[in-house]
Structure formats: C-alpha cells, structure tokens
C-alpha cells in the first residue's frame, strides 16, 4: 500500500542549471517537470517533499538538514545531478547525506524528469 509513504526528491534548483548542457530544456520546463513529478506521486498516495540544491558547496549540509529526523522511505537523486560529470562530487555528497541522515531510506534514481514515479515505485 502506498498511502503516506514518505519520499524525498532532490534535484537542482531550476534557476541554477546550466541549460547549455540540456538542449531544449529551460528553467520553466524543468520546474514544471519537477513539480509535475511531485504532483503525480501525491496523486499516487505518496507524501512527497521536493528539495532543491543550489550549489555543490552547500549540498551535503542542505540535504542532511532536510532529511534528519524525517521518516523517509525512499530518496530520489535526480538525473541532473547524477548524469552531469561536472557534478560528480555533488552526487557523492548527496548519497552520503542520505546514508548519514536517513539510513532507513532506499535510494533511487530517475533517468529524466518524466520517470521519477517509476523510480520511486521500484523501491517502495
């Protein structure tokens, strides 16, 4: 049963993404996709928190703070963080923040903003 399974979604804030790396994507399209993913999960019965990363320097602390003391069952780290080689260390920081602050949570990954629900459903 999905009802109220708590999940956290982590991805870049749409205002800080280098869209030269993602042809056809814009801040507006990314924001709509991320919020659409959140809304789809809410419709499926999940309790969802969407967390935006603003920079690599604060990613670990921000994620740790967002996760600490909350009973997340699953944490998704978005493809924009994971698939961009320039942000490999940010991805590493987020994985370790989840491991530290939410050790009970499974970790999952999407391949783009449209398959987040599939990733979450694989692990909840």
TrEMBL record:
Q: What is this protein called?
A: 6,7-dimethyl-8-ribityllumazine synthase
Q: Which species is this UniProt entry from?
A: Grimontia celer
Lineage of source species: Bacteria, Pseudomonadati, Pseudomonadota, Gammaproteobacteria, Vibrionales
